[in-house]
Amino acid sequence: MWLKHIPLEDFFRNPEITQVRISPNGKYLAYLKPFQKRLNIHVKLVDDKEPERRLTNQTDRDIAAFFWKEDDTLLFLRDFGGDENFHFFRISAKGENEKDLTPYEDTKVSLISNLENISEDHIIIGTNQRDKRVFDAYRLNVKTGEAKMVAKNPGHFTGWLVDHQGKLRLAESTDGANTSLYYREEEQKEFEQIFTTNFKNTILPLLFTFDNKNIYVFSNLNKDKEAVEIFDPKERKIVSTLFEHPEVDVWGLNHSKKRKVLTFVSYMTWKQQIHFFDKETEHIFKDIQSQIPEDEIMITSKNRDEDLWALEAHGDRNPGTYYLYDVKNKNLQKVAEARPWLNKEDLAEIKPISYKARDGLTIHGYLTLPKNYMEGEKCPVVVHPHGGPWARDRWRYNPEVQFLANRGYAVLQMNFRGSMGYGKNFWIAGFKQWGKKMQDDVTDGVQYLIEEEVADKYKIGIFGASYGGYVVLAGLCFTPDLYACGVDYVGVSNMFTTLADIPPYWEPYREMMYEMDGHPEKDKELLESVSPVFHADKIKAPLLVAQGAKDPRVKKAESDQIVEALNKRGVDVLYMVKENEGHGFRNEENKMEFYSEMENFLAQYLKP
Fold it and tell me: Which helix (H) or strand (E) element contains residue 255?
């Protein structure tokens, strides 16, 4: 089968449109769209009676995210050079009165609640302006920029929850080993500790019940898989279970703000699945799904009356298609495609696989074969472990995967032990297993493809970012004969320096990280045994390393160390550093340069 060559730029340039949001009055659509290669906010009327209007003019950095505050006001987030110190900005729907609402130096700001349908002028934010290690809660006036503290963080609170009247009434806390809930009946009262559990047992507050008395939570207390449950703060216990799945955790609880009912919860087997709590929502989804049968559907926003929905459809070969759905008339209107220059028929299918690790544990993952793959053929493989590591791969369009498949490589993704979504026991099985059983799961996946005669065992490369970058380095160190080359993208090389250099706002989680990853003193031998920088003498495969200079999570020193160690031995290593990037490259020109370098690098050593 002929393989159509798709230009690299078509995979990695910014989308034509993304993050489509409908205004509360249902009259306007706002979305991010490129302007001088940077994603900026644009607005247009739903009925297209006026030309599209660009609201922002950012040219140094993409706008990361935005949302409507009211019918004529939008708020957006941006950082500076990848430092992840995000600021909130306000701008009108006419592109006027732009203002940095949080102009604090060296400060990270996050959204606690946008107070949608509660307050026209205020949101509640968290900021570590007072103490870089923790976030205090403020009620921020989006018109004046005035911020008033709602709750001062005592030093161990890690999250906040408001009720349906916009009152801050619940806080999450950790001492590193245990997590606690703190509750108050009224905003003027002091928080009282009401529940404590070891961090391995999840009780994640999602929202208050609609009478503001109890709390909907995700919890795996006394069970392996996380379920949707109701927690009573007065009784201090779980009082009912609403839905649980026997094989995977639940995620993504949705509700109707107007009708005040839970609508559905999602869960992920190999694809997204939905359990409905509300018949009305179920009928709407079934109608939408009948018109878009192959893709997963995500609600991106609704108008205030909830009779007009903005939707995103995506799949393994669909980078995103945006729709408006008129609930009353059951009319589905296509708005735009994220990447209209890509043809679905030219892209490769991402298919689920599973295999047994050497100790018998079942590992789930995905295999993407190039379009020109012939049954029985052995082809070059790029192993692509996910970051986190407490995350998971899923079935959806992935530009890196599709790019690699288009260049003739099979791509293996696996949810090694420690990945999220498969229950408590599977997650805990990854504790202190960096470079050990977690790495074995990756190696066993490669062996599975070799045994299945899919992989050419002499042409296997490995590419990953963050923890995935660590897996690259560990793979080259601990299984040096398995890989022909590796690409480490903002990856960890030294467990000691990684744990020592965590961002200050991760400090409350330090003891938790020690239990999950290893303690620098108590587990010194373990951490030394799994840190690639101490085993660089075993690396013989060529390596490409890419790093953002402003990365606050995996500091540049992580890449510097491994590159220096290899340079001393004369191992072939290419090193790309971008001064205006952080944890992964966002600026389009930097992405193009990196993936172009990676394309040439892989072709040199894997020769598809």
Answer: strand 250-256
Q: Which residues contact 519 (CB under 8 A, 6 or more apart)?
A: none
Given this model, what pLDDT does residue 233 score?
Answer: 97
pLDDT of 593 over the 90 cut: yes
d(CA 92, CA 53): 12
Taking the C-alpha atoms of residue 428 and residue 248, their distance in angstroms, rounded to an integer, is 15
CA atoms within 13 A on the CB side of 235: 10
Task: Give me the residues paired with residue 216 across strands.
Answer: 207, 230
Residue 189 within a domain? no
In contact, 377 and 455? CB cutoff 8 Å: no
The number of beta carbons lying within 10 Å of the beta carbon of residue 581 is 24
Q: Could you tell me which residue, 50 or 382, shows the higher pLDDT?
A: 382
Q: Is the CB of residue 30 less than 8 Å from the CB of residue 66?
A: yes
Does an H or E element contain 228, and which? strand 227-232
Domain with 388, as residue range(s), is 353-606
Residue 449 lies in a domain: yes
CATH number of the domain enclosing 491: 3.40.50.1820
Q: pLDDT digit string (tens) for 480-512? A: 999 999 999 999 999 999 999 988 888 889 999
Peptide bond into 293 cis (omega under 30): no
Is residue 376 pLDDT above 90, yes or no?
Answer: no
* Pairwise CA distance, residues 205 & 154, whole Å: 19
> Taking each helix axis from N to C terminus, what angle separates 437-451 and 467-478, rounded to the nearest 10 degrees?
70
With a cut of 60, say whether residue 258 has pLDDT above it.
Answer: yes
**Residue 186 within any structural domain of the chain:** no
Distance, CA of 424 to CA of 221 (rounded, Å): 10
Does residue 253 lie in a domain region? no
The torsion defined by the Cα of 299, 219, 227 and 238, in degrees rounded to 10, comes to -110
Straight-line distance from the first to the last Cα atom of the chain, in angstroms, rounded to the nearest whole number: 15
Amino acid, res. 58: Q
The 10 Å Cβ neighbour count of residue 446 is 21
Q: How high is the pLDDT of residue 608? A: 66
Phi-psi region of 252 (alpha: psi -120 to 50; beta: other; left: phi over 0): left
Cα separation, 456 vs 477, whole angstroms = 21
pLDDT band at residue 584 using 50, 70 and 90 as cut-offs? very high
Mean pLDDT of 437-444: 98
- The DSSP string of 274-340 is EEES-HHHHHHHHHHHHHS-SSEEEEEEE-TTSSEEEEEEEETTEEEEEEEEETTTTEEEEEEES-T
pLDDT one-digit tens code per residue, 21-78: 999 999 999 999 999 999 999 999 998 888 899 999 999 989 999 999 999 999 999 9
Q: Which two tokens stand for residue 124?
A: 């509640």
Pairing of strands 136-141, 122-127: antiparallel
Per residue, the 3-state secondary structure of 262-293, as one string, reads: EEEEEEECCCEEEEECCHHHHHHHHHHHHHCC
Count of domains forming the chain: 1
Give me the active site residues, please: 466, 551, 583
Count of CA atoms in the C-beta half-sphere (13 A) of 7: 5
- Asked if residue 176 has pLDDT above 90, the reply is no
